[in-house]
From TrEMBL:
Residues 91-173 form the Methylated-DNA-[protein]-cysteine S-methyltransferase DNA binding domain. It comes from Rhizobium anhuiense. One of its GO terms (molecular function) is methyltransferase activity. The keyword Transferase applies. It catalyses: a 6-O-methyl-2'-deoxyguanosine in DNA + L-cysteinyl-[protein] = S-methyl-L-cysteinyl-[protein] + a 2'-deoxyguanosine in DNA; a 4-O-methyl-thymidine in DNA + L-cysteinyl-[protein] = a thymidine in DNA + S-methyl-L-cysteinyl-[protein]. InterPro entries: MethylDNA_cys_MeTrfase_AS, MethylDNA_cys_MeTrfase_DNA-bd, MethylDNA_cys_MeTrfase_DNAb, MGMT_N_sf, WH-like_DNA-bd_sf. GO terms for biological process: methylation. It comes from the Bacteria. This is Cysteine methyltransferase. Keywords: DNA damage, DNA repair, Methyltransferase, Transferase.
Amino acid sequence: MAETTHHYLIFETAGGFCGIAWSDAGIARFQLPTKSAEATERLLLRRLPDAEPGAPTPAVLETVAAVKRYFQGEETDFSGVELDLAGQDAFFRDIYAAARRVGWGRTTTYGALAKELGAGPEAARDVGQAMAKNPVALIIPCHRVLAAGGKIGGFSAPGGSTSKARMLELEGVNLAPPPPAQQSLGF
C-alpha cells in the first residue's frame, strides 16, 4: 500500500499564524493560531512529521480563505470541507461528524453529543477524548463542545480554554453567567 503524501501551508490570520496540511483525500491537520509562523509550523509538524510545504489545491485555498474570514469574526461554515481522517476509529469519526453539525454561534456538551450518537452518559468521556485529539480543530468545531452545565471545559490548543472562549466570543456566544434576576438595592 502506498504511503500518503501530505503537504502543508502556514498562513497568517487576524488571530495569528495557522497551519493546514492536506492529502489527496482532504484536509488532514489544522493548527489553530499561534503568535509566530515558526511555532505554528513546529506544532503542525509534531503531529505530521513527514509533511512537506506544498502549493495548495483550490479546495485548500478555499478553506484558508474561510479560516481568515472566521478569525475576522465573519460567520463561516466548514461543514463542506473534505477531510482526511485516516487512522481515526469509527466511533471518533461518528463523534466528529456530530460535532460538525453544531453550527456557528451554537454550543453543545460532551454528554449531549454522546446522547445524540445513541451512547450512554459514560460515553461523554469518549467525546471529550475525541475532541482533545481532533486533528482539524475549527474545521471540526471542538471549541463549540462544552463540559456539563455549559462550563468551558478543556481545550488542548495553544492558549487552552482562553483560546476556546475567544473563539466562542467571535461567534457571539456569551459564556458569562447571567445577570442576577433581582437588582441590588445598593446598600
